Amino acid sequence: MAVEPGVDIRPTTLAPEEPGGDRWTLNFGPQHPATHTTLRLVLELDGERVLSCVPHIGYLHSGFEKLGEHLDYNQYVVVTDRMNYISPMANNIAWHHAAEVLFNIELTPRCKVIRTIIAELARIQDHLLCVGTAALDLGAFTAFLYGFAEREEIYDIFEDICGARFTTSYTRVGGLMQDMPDGWPEKIKKFCKKVPSTLDDMVSLLNRNRIFVERTKGVGHIGHDDAINWGLTGPLARASGVRRDLRKDEPYLCYKDNWDGQGSSAVQFKVPMASGGDVYSRYLVRLEEMRQSLAIIDQLIDNIPSGPVNVLPNDKKTLPSKDEVYFSIEGLIHHFEQVMTNRGFTPPIGEAYGATETANGELGFYFASDGGRCAYRARCRPPSFINYQCFPKLVEGHQLSDVVAILGSLNVIAAELDR
Amino acid sequence: MHEATEKVISAMSKAFSDVDFAPSPLVDRGDAPAGAEQIYVRVPAERLLDVMRFLRNDAACAFEQLCDLTCVDYLDFPKARDRYGVTYSLLSLSRNHRIWVKCFVNDPNPEVPSVTGIWAGAEWLEREVWDLFGVRFADHPDLRRIVTWEEFEAHPLRKDYPLRGRGERENYKVLTRESR
């Protein structure tokens, strides 16, 4: 294996090998089906036992944060699609949630409900893939296909609302690209009726499957204090007994009481937790989170408030609707003022941080704004990046085949990891 | 200012009477909802570790988690005096509050102490800041570049690095069958 000049990829903590030993180095990835995307691990093995692991990341680094300094607050949403492409809607919402913290915009009730529904659909979409591929990596193909069949339906729902299946770019500052189409809630209701039986199928395939349980229970253990110290968030932390969910602790959208300004209470849901801290616990937490997401959608889908989806364009922060642009001179002027490079957004000078709970954990954006139309600095706090750094500690002492199981349970998306 | 944040600031000022933390909101504006401001404090690099250890362990602060660590290059920022602001976003899970700590450093040798000894999660975040901004972290166990490659010499998120057109690719070695 070639070693890059100047880089010591061999860990220094290992004692020198005794003569006649069985130690060898394996280059795992960057192109391997079980690494899902381009991740590279250099594993030091004794037989099949992992002595140490050095991850090398950056194969998908494309300078998203640099681009964020040159695209305005609406344009950049296209780039967020490409971060965690398993649930692009969740990234869109996270980006514009942070932008609205900076601009201090209160959304309309209709927009909040639609955003909450698609955020929960994105969570289901992400967890279905994670649970499915985690099983696939352990050889269980059927659960994976069941999950993918349901994901296809979610893609259809997203296609109906924004015209794109994968790169959605649906949110805008202060609202959404467009209102939902007629018949959209019925489609979601039909979908929500179907999913529980799929989840039941997955449960009956995996939960007491001896191979699955033997290969996941007690594997890749993270303790409660370690999870906090490593900065883990989301299902990973909750599977280790850390009670933290931004939807409860720092509520936003419809997770907040009085979200519509008329005293409506926040949506009701439970935060699934486990104390095992192993791969199996993470699987169980994700499975239960999907059911809770369905419950949230169920509470909102019948009562989508009427009214506009975008906040009024009076304060020159939001784009006017296409009707106004095409049929009124004021709307046209306003639209041009908003998109011209020497006009555009006028955010306050300063910094702001906004975070949402996505399927992988806390996805936050930290803006520094110099008052211009683009952010001066657009930092993304990617959950995958922070979740992945404890990986070498998790695999030490495990078998080579467990590396795949642990990697699957972390649900690392390389495009978000490298940005 | 939020009540919990006020307590943190007063505990900090009591413990470190020699440091001027200058607590202020991240964004200064009149229309912020009361109690929802995001507050940051300034800490000089030489006292950073002491302050961070205090914030982690003091009962009123209890910032068990380093939520994020990043940097802003204030080269063209209005009214900025220092160049690099290493920004620590701290989160207390038990008390559910946040605070931002900023440590300003300047050329020619931007360096802050590493907080990996306090929060293990800082390791890759510090490597990323070193890689993209060129701010060194003293006593970091493994300060290598993380998203770019080791032979790369620039720090691309600095404001004096252009979005396009510097041409590192021309410097790549051309591999031929013979040279392998």
Describe this structure in words.
The complex is a heterodimer of chains A (419) and B (180). In chain A, 45% of the residues lie in helices and 11% in strands. Chain A contains 17 helices and eight strands. Chain A has helices at 64-67, 77-81, 88-103, 109-137, 141-162, 184-206, 210-216, 224-229, 234-239, 246-249, 279-301, 322-327, 329-339, 383-388, 391-395, 400-410, 414-418, and strands at residues 23-28, 40-46, 49-56, 171-172, 175-176, 350-358, 361-369, 377-381. Chain A has a three-stranded antiparallel β-sheet. Chain A has a three-stranded antiparallel β-sheet with strand order 6-7-8. In chain A, strands 4-5 form a two-stranded antiparallel sheet. In chain A, helix 5 runs antiparallel to helix 6 (184-206). Residues 1-12 of chain A have low confidence and may be disordered. Chain B has a single domain (3-171), classed as Beta Polymerase, domain 2, CATH 3.30.460.80. Chain B is 19% helix and 22% strand. Chain B has a five-stranded mixed β-sheet. A two-stranded parallel sheet of chain B has the order 6-7. Chains A and B meet through helix 1, helix 8, strand 6, strand 7 and strand 8 of A and strand 3 and helix 3 of B.
